[in-house]
Amino acid sequence: MWTCKTTWKKLAPLARTCSTLCRQNARRTVLNSDRRLPMVTQAHMSSGTPGSGGDNNLYYLLVGATCIAGGFYVSNKYPAQLYTVGSLHLVIPLPNKWNIKGVYCALTLHFFAVPLLAADPATDEPTNVPPPAPVEFPSHAPYLLIGGGTASFAAARSIRARDPGARVLIITDEPDLPYMRPPLSKELWFSDDPGVVDTLRFKQWNGKERSIYFQPPSFYVSPQDLEKVENGGVAVLTGKKVVHMDVRGNKVTLSDNTEISYDKCLIATGGVPRNLQVIERAGEEVTKRTTLFRKVEDFKALNKVSRDTKSITIIGGGFLGSELACALGRRSADSDLEVIQMFPEKGNMGKVLPEYLSNWTTAKVRSEGVRVITEALVKGVSFKDGKVEIKLKDGRVVKTDHIVAAVGLEPSVELAKSAGLEVDSDFGGYRVNAELQARSNIWVAGDAACFYDIRLGRRRVEHHDHAVVSGRLAGENMTGANKPYWHQSMFWSDLGPDVGYEAIGIVDSSLPTVGVFAKATAKDTPKAATEKSGTGIRSESETEGTASSTATSSTPAPPPEPQQKDDYGKGVIFYLRDKVVVGIVLWNVFNRMPIARKIIKDGEEHADLNEVAKLFNIHED
């Protein structure tokens, strides 16, 4: 084996020759461009005898090692090919007496060897592909909206309506532009289009088609252009998460340490689906077979699961769980899919509907092909023999391929600590005043807001219409409106195109209720309601209508008993607190929400709720 000193004795003349040629070539190049490069003095170059000094030894080692390694590489990959050195083409073979065949040394002005041969597409990777350009962020946004859901979009639209030149930046950790969530558990599942998971377009119950996205990409300006556009606009920064708020400095920090300052800020971070602890402790095999349903990606994943597996079990009997159960149950009619729904209540939506109506709803869900297991408390979950086993407290065991946990929402309040914002200990969410304000220049809207309702007290609401209403109000107040939250938002749920309801106020089955029902007609369905209103998102068609004064009898009458029959066609359910109506459910009664809103706003006692029910025209054919 050669020693470094012996090697250098043979390579030193070659290295000095290459250095001289490079200096000459560099001098010619800079003279042509009338520029002068700082040249290394000859005293600092390696021209002495090997081993005569530390600087020379290091130079010998580096140049010698480079020539040997580079020469062997060139010999093996590009034998006898021409290489460029600046504007010179040099092929410098080692002397034959060194007994190193086919080794060449090539240098450029920048000391890189570049082969002058066409790339072989079969063997060579392209070397001229530029790296992706980094995404530019605006350093400042007059209006900064954290969260990319319905509340943020409603706020952005409201801000621009009052301030046409406003520059609004929405930051969302999702990869999607703002979209509506209700179709993810409703209409999308009833689409006949096999490409619905890609298009995310759906037919409403009235047959009209629309997208889940509020606006197409062309509606928005790019984040890097937000500060430049003349008339302002709305930009969306996707796939980025705000991890810290500096409320004194009026700036936020993203997960990649980017900082963006703001004048006014809205927190509309929504929430994350809750999970059962028994599932979280069950291990990886169970976790990867569990869906927490909330986002577009969850819809796409569950849609694939429903086509690839034999059994899906939905845990939860509320709005989301019951809607998904009906949707998947109807799909199971055309496949071998088994759909199971289990929950601890006695019937579907047992926390919302009175018991008799909850039982009727459960029968409706079963008629859609769903195996409903009531009064089911999950004790443990495990993975065994290729199946997920769910053990109930009463000893029953359910085997399934996949679990959907629909057990509620946890408001996202991660920014509370860094921002110094108060989280409500009873309802969760950021605690705000009646104007949805948490600090002097910070507002909160949507699922994450625990607000003061001037009629019903402190509340937190997790529904689409509340996101629209609270987002719109927050946007108005960010532009100086100073309005209190008085509008009672509504929510709705559809169990397919034939059964649905709209509700407003405090709807809690633990409260006393009075139900008034009538015979339904063909127009008393969600499908008929959307045909009349022209939209499947029924809150969009709401108007601030004025209900007439309620007519009540002069003497109190006992509340009517609900009709005890197998079918509740349509009706009105009143929820009472201290004899005052605080909540109303319109069962297969649509486009009457302004009347319900006025009844709750008035806050009066009513001697005969049968008379109040007549305001909704439920007895009309």
UniProtKB/TrEMBL annotation:
GO terms for molecular function: DNA binding; FAD binding; NAD(P)H oxidase H2O2-forming activity; protein dimerization activity. Its main location: cytoplasm. Pfam families: AIF_C, Pyr_redox_2. Residues 522-566 are annotated as: Disordered. Keywords: Acetylation, Apoptosis, Cytoplasm, DNA-binding, FAD, Flavoprotein, Isopeptide bond, Membrane, Mitochondrion, Mitochondrion inner membrane, NAD, Nucleus, Oxidoreductase, Phosphoprotein, Transit peptide, Ubl conjugation. It comes from the Eukaryota. Residues 474-602 form the Mitochondrial apoptosis-inducing factor C-terminal domain. Residues 544-555 have a biased composition (Low complexity). The keyword Nucleotide-binding does not apply. One of its GO terms (biological process) is positive regulation of programmed cell death. Residues 144-470 form the FAD/NAD(P)-binding domain. It catalyses: A + NADH + H(+) = AH2 + NAD(+). It is found in: Cytoplasm, Perinuclear region; Mitochondrion inner membrane; Mitochondrion intermembrane space; Nucleus. Its cofactor is FAD. InterPro entries: AIF_C (IPR029324), FAD-oxidoreductase/Apoptosis (IPR050446), FAD/NAD-bd_sf (IPR036188), FAD/NAD-binding_dom (IPR023753), FAD/NAD-linked_Rdtase_dimer_sf (IPR016156). GO terms for cellular component: mitochondrial inner membrane; mitochondrial intermembrane space; nucleus; perinuclear region of cytoplasm. Functions both as NADH oxidoreductase and as regulator of apoptosis. In response to apoptotic stimuli, it is released from the mitochondrion intermembrane space into the cytosol and to the nucleus, where it functions as a proapoptotic factor in a caspase-independent pathway. Release into the cytoplasm is mediated upon binding to poly-ADP-ribose chains. The soluble form (AIFsol) found in the nucleus induces 'parthanatos' i.e. caspase-independent fragmentation of chromosomal DNA. Binds to DNA in a sequence-independent manner. Monomer (oxidized form). Homodimer (reduced form). Upon reduction with NADH, undergoes dimerization and forms tight, long-lived FADH2-NAD charge transfer complexes (CTC) resistant to oxidation. Also dimerizes with isoform 3 preventing its release from mitochondria. Interacts with XIAP/BIRC4. Interacts (via N-terminus) with EIF3G (via C-terminus). Interacts with PRELID1. Interacts with CHCHD4; the interaction increases in presence of NADH. Belongs to the FAD-dependent oxidoreductase family. This is Apoptosis-inducing factor 1, mitochondrial. It comes from Esox lucius (Northern pike). The lineage of its organism: Eukaryota, Metazoa, Chordata, Craniata, Vertebrata.
